[in-house]
## 1
Amino acid sequence: MSTATDQLDPHLDRSFFGHPRGLSTLFFTEMWERFSFYGMRAILFLYMTKAVADGGLGWTEEYAGPVYGLYAASVYFLPLIGGWLADRFIGAKRATFIGGVVIMLGHFALAVPKIQFFYLGLVLVAVGTGFLKSNISAMVGDLYGKADVRRDAGFSVFYMGINLGAFFSPLVCGYLAQSDSFSNFIVGLGFDPHNSWHFGFAAAGVGMFFGLLQYLIGRKNIATVGLPPSENPRLKNEPAGTNFSTAYLTQLGILVAAAVAIVILSAFYWDASTAITKVLTPVVVVSGLVAVILTGMQDKLSVSDWKRLGVIIVLFTFSTLFWMGFEQASTSLNAFADKLTITTLFGYEFPSSWLQSVNPIMIIVFAPIIGYLWLKLGERQPSDAIKFAIALIFGGLGYVVIAYASSRLGADPENVAGSKVTFWWLVLLYFCHTIGELCLSPVGLSSMTKLAPAKMVSLMLGVWFLSISLGNYIAGRIAGAFVADSAVLTSTFTKVALIMMGSGILLALVSPFVNRLYSKPQVMTPMEP
Ligand code: GLU
Ligand code: ASP
């Protein structure tokens, strides 16, 4: 067997924990990139909504939520375009470097306390992430031969890098932005204490700088991956793949048109609470789905392919609902932590944004355990659809916890902040969300690739990112309704819980149908048993 040969092959590079040396370069670059992303994200919503007197922008949640949602949706929407540019022209390696530079400039722009630089910074971080995110992961895949059994394990190691960065950065950026001790320190240096937020953003930029530095130092380790198509020897003998098909171009055209439409419309009606919120959701969803259907028509798919596409759209919907809940971590849940929880541990009052580190550290702890569980269960492990359902149910349980905590806040809306609850409620919520993430996130990408018709694999990966994008967007809208009021929060969080758990149960009920489409992808006969 070729896999066995690969495993025994003495020529394989195993110098980084049994993996190719190049993985270490990509691991640390992505660790620092995620450090910058999650560090900035931990304080972004708080900065937008803090009073001007406290150094923030003084926006209402109603305004900040949709702006944040638009930013976060773009971050997961643009990698589709960045991935295409790399496949078609510049190669993943160069795209990743360009992305890193643009991201770094973005964070440094945010470090300038001027509103124009704030918007510029958000745009740069989103565009830079578009260049970097999908391409750096593509290079991880590229490190392994087709039959190399280490590939999945390589991605797990890479995922650890992501979460290591995501764990450390809220601690650093949150401390700089929110702590009294650092504010006092910069006063001593002659700075305005209100600028502490901007030191937090600058720290994110410094993190990305380290990522770039180590990407350059380690570039010889990734000499053979991420090449542009013109220099890639592997493409010489292969027929044009999915990435170069007209189908992919059509999809891209529609997506670019949608992106341009969003930008133009937003520029015309710069009013976050109305126009953008109304425009973005339908444009992104409709363009994504139209692209899928058009591509399918062009590729003359078989009946069974169409059925499997149907399943992908079903999974897309459920995935969106999961991220809608999960991605409120940095907005509503962050605001909840800031305004309504007592963040004291062993007598030390820590910055509320430190709670953003709870999910990544739990991922690092629980990912190996869940991985081991699936391995142990082998054939008896639940199907992908059931794993999605479990993820949604755990996601919903997290909201049951926080709805209950909200109901314990004082009933007096004037003084709700005077009756805070303990931060442990949020830890419990993040525990539920982490288990959910581990049942859904690693499964999602692989089930998209398993279900996608051969010619449409790249497109389906894009669809996966679109579901995260849309989920982030809806999360931002829900955060727009955040008010520090016990009754309102209890009702909002209960609704989110019900939607997530209800859709999880629904998915579990229809899962036998979904599983049948999985196991017999080639069968063209009707689906009756
Ligand atoms: N939180 C992870 C990241 O930032 C995963 C998001 C995803 O599922 O792609 O890379
Ligand atoms: N767990 C997220 C990502 O994996 C990181 C985060 O949300 O902080 O990997």
## 2
Amino acid sequence: MVPIVTKFVFVTGGVSSSLGKGLTASSLGRLLKCRGLRVTMVKLDPYINVDPGTMNPFEHGEVFVTEDGGETDLDLGHYERFIDENLSRKSNATTGSIYREVIRKERLGEYLGKTVQVIPHVTDEIKERIRRLADENVDIVIVEVGGTVGDIEIVPFLEAIRQFRHDIGRDNVCYVHLTLVPYLAPSGEQKTKPTQHSVTELRGRGVQPDVIVCRSDQPISDGLKRKISLLCDVAVEGVISAVDAPSIYEIPLVLHEEGLDRVVCKMLQIDEVRHPVDLSSWERVVSQVSSSDRPVRIGVVGKYINLPDAYLSVVEALRHAGFHHGAKVAVDWIQAEEVPDLLGTERLHQLDGMVIPGGFGERGIEGKVTAARFAREHDVPCLGLCLGLQVMVIDAARHLAGMDRANSREFDSLTPYPVIDLMDDQQNVVDKGGTMRLGAYVAQLLAGSVVADAYGAEVVSERHRHRFEVNPRFRGRLEEAGLVCSGSSPDGRLVEFVELPGHPFWVGTQAHPEFKSRPDRAHPLFRELLGAALVRAEGRLPRLLDIDADVGALP
Ligand code: GLN
């Protein structure tokens, strides 16, 4: 075996899902980076789908797209935003993708006639997926194991990570286990029993944690830490109290305060003196967060609004743009289907800006077209993302270019004006997985356009995830009607950006710029959207009316 110099941290979770394992892993990643270590991350997902690309957002939240076109778990978005590194499809492996590979090898006879089994063949494939992340440019791979200890599907993953320490040596592996320490009001106590059970379950699989991160709403006392340490056989310094933080950006600082990165370095025999911590870059982010207070209200017009995780990167990109301007963004989640009914109300007029995010399927489309039109006619700054661009083009076709019933062929196969349509290479695609236009594509921007000015560049690259495109047959008519196609693929065939001159900001992109926004580097389009929204917000104070809408302030 090739000697591995890279070290590995495995993050598992117990007691309950949704404890914030992804954010804990990301925060640890950031802290290790703040110690000058080169970090990369991978998420192992025990479900059977080959990737989350075919899952309904209600099932799984957003699908995060990597530069190389991987359709991955939304935790990769947290990883990229926290460790500030672009990841690739290699950073997400599911049971489905692992079995697919094992079965492929079996069909090719690569197992030399052996009986193919979970141990060793599936576990070897899992280990291979982990090991693949290690190279001479990486000091530490953080491996988050999805799901909760005790799940049936997680067993092969726990076995693989158990073997991993045996394979590469004790000093090269650290196991971090995240649990919940609930406070029970009747007894007035924090309870450690769920943590004990969870650790027992983990040990039953042969994994003894080195660090236990305890989520709780109140800090965990030293006495309780000693109890957990004794009962779970973890050093006291390895029991970390992770209290709910006012914003996700504070989590790295909270965990550092508790000594998480120090104890992980110690376990991995990483010399603290050679790797002192410098938190200044992240502290700047946090101070930006707390000083952002200019109120601004952005409507997000979507169809999965009951599960805001479906738009996670969009919301994060709005937040980052807020940090840039010192603004606190309140998101008004607007159900796309309800937009036509809202036209006579004040709710839409109260918006300072609007985002029309991506999506699939017909439901809510007319509402989104109506929203795009409302923003256009009432000078509301509006940013359309992927499907958002497509509905802006539909609005322009119907209401500026006189193409009655113009539509996308995705929603109306008989429309007389299919202004959005499949290109030839997508006509006969049957396999739904991984067959869209996926990942980073370059666009050439029009000099002097709003988008070229926003980016400060004329050649840009953004990540894509869609099948349909602006139909080149109608481009001329749309442009005559006033729509500016301000960015195209380098060969000029595909429309990548549209905008409307004279409007404060009415911009659509066929891409998903939200995936590239970072807390300390707001994405140029979100930054400009928010800039225009702030002009609107601050130019018409005081507000005469307020609305009784579901407006959530973003921490
Ligand atoms: N459904 C549209 C398409 O496939 C848009 C997809 C999206 O918004 N990501 O082209």
## 3
Amino acid sequence: MRTYLTTIGLEVHVQLKTASKMFCTNSAEYFGAQPNSHVCPVCLGLPGALPVANEKAIESVTRFALALNCRINKQSKFDRKNYFYPDLPKGYQISQFDLPIGEQGWLELDGKKIGITRVHLEEDTGKLIHANVNGEKVSLIDFNRSGVPLMEIVTEPDIESPEEARSFSKLIHQIARYLEVSNADMEKAGMRFDANVSIRPRGATKLGNKVEIKNINSFRFLEKALAYEIGRQVEILESGGKIIQETRGWVESKNVTVSQRTKETSPDYRYFPEPDLPPLVFEQAQIEALKNSLPELPAEKSKRFEEEYSLDKKYVRILTEDSNVAQWYEKALSLYSKEKSKILANWVVEELLRIIHDKNLIINGVPIEPAGLIELLTILDKGEINQTTARRVLVRMFETGNLPSRIVNEENLAQLSKSEDLESVVEEIIRENQKAVKDFKNGKEASIGFLVGQIMSKTKGQANPKTAETLVRKKIYGNQSGS
Ligand code: ADP
Ligand code: MG
């Protein structure tokens, strides 16, 4: 078999987070609402209704394009993309054709630049629901999503594997959330992909015919669909066939892509400038101001976390995945001490985020403030509680919303460091483990560890292991000298 090179270009759709829709005043927060409750003459495309562009959406796309190192077109405009489909009542979608808001950008992914062809703004369509009503198959239309602002990002054919496509789309998702232009909520189809893919024999300079896989709504499906499609194309070429340029769909239940339409019948959208909306004009000063307002982006933040806090790549990746987590960590660190950046990272990643993940929460929805965790770590540092107890206290902080000092007091969790506190437990353990005591007396040093372990477990981890060990030795030697 020959070896083949893979070429992928992505078209990513991201729903913008705006209060109202793109061209009317209906709320864009339609998810889960009663069907057709968020509609008006504008988004229903009734005759004579006039669109008014949403300024926030334009600003969001401009900021996003700037974050992707695009050139912003000083003159931009909206265009009509004409086609018929039941979820598009106007008979055209307002989009952008030859003058998108942003062009010619790039994004670095694991040290490699992926070219960004364009970033433009358009409106979403309604949604068809195929249902069974009284035993009859019907198609229903919900127009709540009609006219919700949608940003489209098109990449150059620079992506070389399904894994890279997945990482790239995750980066887009991350940036959309960093910039707060979108929740990019995958469960609510807030982000969708069309993936274009072709293969060519190694050594060939001309790209192969591409196949477009439409409407993929998860990172995992994107990777799976592309891997399947590449396999399918290799098989065709290997058996002497030709790849026809076509649009295919990913059928998750069967794990295959299926043909939807071929190039011969591909639609001619007859784009023309939207006559009901004025062109968009940007001043250089406006562009500069938006550029300066961009927050620190994932790449810069990771680099800074690595350098400033000397953290491992793995921890940096987890802490900077969500800018709210990064912010939480930095707030906590500012209340603690920079020298303890690693200890804190460990607590946030291994304990806090694990609980958040298990409980299906988000960082901004937890009952624990950075100051609460730092109070806990300070009590731990002072030796008032030990590691095991500290972990338990953290769980109780989640459950009660109380501060750690209060939990330690009310639940009697302070470390048992004084001999008096441990005397009776130690005696009990010695009584119950005569064999280990004998082994120890006979020189088996490891038995002391076993005995201390028993004490720890009996005290649910509250015993100070050092005090416990000293006490065990004292008791055993005491007995010995007494015998
Ligand atoms: P079309 O005119 O069919 O929409 P475009 O040139 O606009 O095609 O490209 C659409 C997407 O397909 C872009 O993301 C682009 O990078 C990608 N693309 C273009 N040619 C190829 C190819 N031969 N193989 C893989 N992807 C491609
Ligand atoms: Mg195109």
